């Protein structure tokens, strides 16, 4: 089973145009999905957890929010899913492809899966925007061994780097998630940046060997930096135009 959660920095969910776009497109393909926010007001019909109401509304608090969301998911939502996905609201995931890819891993072994970045951390860390996935065992270790240990899990202003370091300190490395032909499964930057090879070289762990239309392939899993209208466009292209 597959579980998704989204951390919102703290803006009004009712006014967030991404929420209806997510609900209309790929999010229902997850076995379960939840939103974690500073307020659930006006969103009673959705699985919203008012988890961050005591934290300041700031990008620089995202590490604390994701850290809390991981722990809360394990202790209050469910420990029974095989995989747990976190992503930005401007991302699109082809869930059936992601599930097929995850079948190549054992969820009872700690795994941290996503697009590898390298800036300021030579061991590599997963991109938060492109979405990262924890196996059931990785989530258990984080909640039981890292959450309350400030030595293992220190604050970092970059949420994705901070969470990756916490998991790395538990002996859970980031993985090479490219295909056998070395194509990227996850796209953390905009489609144009990947298409025209404008991705900052100092950020990437694995060399990008493909540009142009070669970035699109049958094992591609996620897109990032999309507008709500683009979420719907991609969903329509994938599920309707190319359907039988």
TrEMBL record:
The keyword Glycosyltransferase applies. Belongs to the glycosyltransferase 31 family. Beta3-Gal-T subfamily. It comes from Panagrolaimus davidi. It is an enzyme of class 2 (transferase). Residues 20-174 form the Fringe-like glycosyltransferase domain. One of its GO terms (molecular function) is nucleotide binding. Pfam families: Fringe. InterPro entries: C1GALT1/C1GALT1_chp1 (IPR026050), Fringe-like_glycosylTrfase (IPR003378). Pathway: Protein modification; protein glycosylation. GO terms for cellular component: membrane. It is a single-pass type II membrane protein. Its main location: membrane. This is N-acetylgalactosaminide beta-1,3-galactosyltransferase. It is found in: Membrane. Its EC number is 2.4.1.122. PANTHER family: BETA1,3-GALACTOSYLTRANSFERASE (PTHR23033), GLYCOPROTEIN-N-ACETYLGALACTOSAMINE 3-BETA-GALACTOSYLTRANSFERASE 1-RELATED (PTHR23033:SF12). Keywords: Glycosyltransferase, Membrane, Nucleotide-binding, Signal-anchor, Transferase, Transmembrane, Transmembrane helix.
């Amino acid at each position: 089973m597959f579980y998704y959660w989204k951390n919102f920095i703290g803006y009004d969910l009712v006014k967030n145009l991404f929420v209806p776009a997510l609900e209309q497109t790929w999010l229902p393909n997850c076995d379960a999905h939840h939103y974690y926010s500073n307020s659930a007001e006006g969103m009673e019909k959705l699985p919203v957890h008012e988890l961050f109401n005591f934290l300041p509304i700031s990008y620089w608090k995202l590490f604390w929010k994701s850290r809390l969301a991981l722990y809360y998911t394990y202790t209050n939502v469910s420990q029974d899913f095989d995989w747990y996905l976190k992503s930005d609201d401007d991302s699109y995931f082809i869930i059936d492809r992601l599930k097929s890819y995850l079948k190549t891993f054992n969820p009872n072994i700690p795994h941290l899966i996503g697009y590898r970045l390298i800036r300021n951390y030579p061991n590599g860390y997963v991109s938060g925007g492109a979405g990262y996935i924890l196996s059931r065992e990785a989530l258990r270790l984080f909640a039981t061994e890292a959450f309350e240990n400030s030595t293992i899990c220190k604050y970092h202003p970059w949420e994705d780097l901070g969470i990756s370091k916490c998991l790395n300190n538990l002996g859970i490395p980031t993985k090479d998630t490219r295909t056998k032909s070395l194509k990227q499964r996850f796209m953390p930057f905009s489609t144009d940046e990947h298409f025209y090879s404008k991705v900052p070289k100092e950020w990437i762990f694995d060399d990008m060997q493909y540009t142009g239309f070669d970035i699109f392939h049958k094992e591609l899993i996620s897109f990032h930096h999309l507008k709500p209208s683009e979420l719907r466009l991609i969903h329509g292209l994938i599920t309707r135009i190319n359907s039988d």
